[in-house]
Amino acid sequence: MTPFTCGLKGRNLVFTVLFCISAFGLTTYLGFNGQFQHRRMHFIFREHKPMHHQFGLENPGENGQKLTLNLEKPPSDLETYRFPAGLSEGMKKSIEKSVRWMTGLKEPPKFLPEYKNPCWYEDFDPLIGKGKIYRDNWYGMFHPYAKKNSGAFKSWEFNLYSWWSQNKKRLRCIPYFYLAGIAKCGTTDLFQRIRSHPDVADGLLKMSQWWGRLAYNTAGNGSGVPFIDFVDLFDYPARVIEKYTCTTCPKLHHQIVGDYSTNTLFDNDYWIRLLGNNPQLHEPNITTAHYIRYFQPGAKILAIFREPTERLYSDYLFFYKGVKSPERFHSLAKQAVELFDNCTKIFSVRSCAYNRTLHSQEALRIVRLRVGLYHVYVNDYLRVFPRDQLLFLRLEDYHNNMNESLNRVYNFLGLRDLNAREEYKVLRKGAVNSRSKNNTKIGDALERTKILLRNFYAKHNDLLAEALGDDGFKWHANEIKQPADNGPEKIAS
Ligand SMILES: *[C@@H]1O[C@H](CO)[C@@H](O)[C@H](O)[C@H]1NC(C)=O
Ligand SMILES: *[C@@H]1O[C@H](CO)[C@@H](O)[C@H](O)[C@H]1NC(C)=O
Ligand SMILES: *[C@@H]1O[C@H](CO)[C@@H](O)[C@H](O)[C@H]1NC(C)=O
Ligand SMILES: *[C@@H]1O[C@H](CO)[C@@H](O)[C@H](O)[C@H]1NC(C)=O
Ligand SMILES: *[C@@H]1O[C@H](CO)[C@@H](O)[C@H](O)[C@H]1NC(C)=O
Ligand SMILES: *[C@@H]1O[C@H](CO)[C@@H](O)[C@H](O)[C@H]1NC(C)=O
């Protein structure tokens, strides 16, 4: 028996994974807050709606239920498969070239057809030697959780090496879905509950930040983090995904893994460097969304939003490390709004939202106004991905009816319904409220700050509501009294 912990982060987030050799082979147990949950082998699928964009194979399961999977060969109209409509040939070439540069791969992998999750096999040379697999992994060396990561990598290698050697193959997977935003909107709580689903495997980290940031630039370094270092984060879940198939469709590997980097949606800080973008235009033509779509056309993107004024104050209390007070917040917020409004007198809102120079000015760095301009980012994803590959939630709804919001997420991800016992386990725990004692003492934002910020965000919320066809995103005054804060996120996202 080999117990090991992969401390993801935070107080109550230590996961223990135990391998037990039983008469039936290797059975994986996953622990959550000391509660052990047996991953059972019997699965029934929820009807997975066929999607026009996903060129999938429909495999009839029990009671005519279906599972859509990746096809080995992309459809003949590869173009429309990997690119949104209306892109010029030059733009397509730029995306191809950039992704080649970012991933080091000549072309995106052909995902295995019998896997719901995007996965592929890589040759494995047993002579490579134990201790070398993750030795140079960036996340194991430089990430803020490097120490924990390298500990987890060691355990993974210990457990997986002989399996890979035996097979001379190593299954590689990238996330099936991305919880792409947004910081201080309940992402930590949602993240924990999504992966409580028995068919969702766990990656190493919550915040890999690869697509949105690290692919282009590591902190204080001109070069990006290698793609393969990102893929390494999913090696253990890849083994879980490889191991389990559903009993009603025994050849199908139905488990999935996700990425939970809450900056993916809005972080395009390095857009000026991306091929196909022209700094003279003052705003990006190509964003991270294009790269993800090109590399994994079936990717699902979900995000949770919160009334932006409440989000902003919570973000300030959480990320700013200097002396904090509602008065200071007020004066910074006033400057921030003025800086942004000054920018929009000359440039478009979208241009200002993506302007790194503007947002590195002190007031905007501390009061991260741009993060709440949800409509800019949502519209950019709507332009690139088919609507049914995107899901946007509100923290307020999540708090009022967590069961319903979670079911929407599970449904969106094509996950089966939970049975009563599983549902109880997932819903039992109340929402995480992590506003620290010190930050609670600082008190609420001033009324005049709230008015200032609500006025600022009102037009942006209207645009979000319009883009999503849902007036809930206007956050009417009667629901502004806010629910609890979300969990800890030590890394600014
Ligand atoms: C992006 O490129 C398209 C052509 O592919 C062009 O029509 C459009 O104006 C460009 N937009 C921006 C913001 O550069
Ligand atoms: C910085 O980049 C160089 C290559 O240009 C690489 O060798 C080095 O490991 C990187 N350092 C960090 C901290 O990422
Ligand atoms: C970003 O904003 C600054 C002002 O803060 C402006 O000088 C600069 O031209 C803008 N950059 C782009 C690419 O629009
Ligand atoms: C905004 O622009 C006005 C007019 O140009 C200027 O007086 C003011 O200082 C600017 N505000 C900030 C915060 O830079
Ligand atoms: C959660 O939602 C599902 C599906 O709508 C329903 O069957 C179930 O009874 C709900 N559970 C609770 C605790 O409300
Ligand atoms: C909370 O405040 C106290 C006194 O102001 C300080 O000593 C302590 O370090 C703070 N704790 C944190 C986690 O910031």
State the gist of this model.
Residues 179-416 form the Sulfotransferase domain. The protein is of the alpha/beta class.
Shape: globular
Strand order of the largest sheet: 10-11-9-12-13
Radius of gyration over alpha carbons? 22 Å
CATH architecture of one domain: 3-Layer(aba) Sandwich
Please state the average pLDDT score: 82
- CATH first level of one domain: Alpha Beta
> Distance N terminus to C terminus?
37 Å
User: What ligand molecules are bound, each kind once?
Assistant: 2-acetamido-2-deoxy-beta-D-glucopyranose
The number of helices is 20
The helix content, as a percent range, equals 25-40%
Number of strands: 13
Roughly what fraction of the amino acids lie in strands?
A: 5-15%
CATH topology of one domain: Rossmann fold
Which secondary-structure class do the elements indicate?
Answer: alpha/beta
Q: Stretches where pLDDT falls below 50 for ≥5 residues?
A: 1-76, 483-490
Pfam family, one: Sulfotransfer_1
InterPro entries: CS_Sulfotransferase (IPR052654), P-loop_NTPase (IPR027417), Sulfotransferase_dom (IPR000863)
Protein name: Carbohydrate sulfotransferase 15 isoform X2
Keywords: Membrane, Transmembrane, Transmembrane helix
Q: Helices and strands in order, then pairings?
A:
Blueprint: E1 4-7, E2 14-22, E3 25-32, E4 35-38, E5 57-60, E6 66-69, H1 78-82, H2 89-103, E7 119-123, H3 138-141, H4 146-167, E8 169-173, E9 177-181, H5 187-194, E10 200-201, H6 210-214, H7 227-232, H8 235-243, E11 256-259, H9 288-295, E12 300-305, H10 308-319, H11 326-346, H12 349-353, H13 356-359, H14 362-366, H15 374-384, E13 390-394, H16 395-400, H17 402-412, H18 420-428, H19 437-442, H20 447-468
Parallel strand pairs: 9-11, 9-12, 10-11, 12-13
Antiparallel strand pairs: 1-2, 2-3, 3-4, 5-6, 7-8
Helix pairs in contact: 2-9, 11-20, 15-20
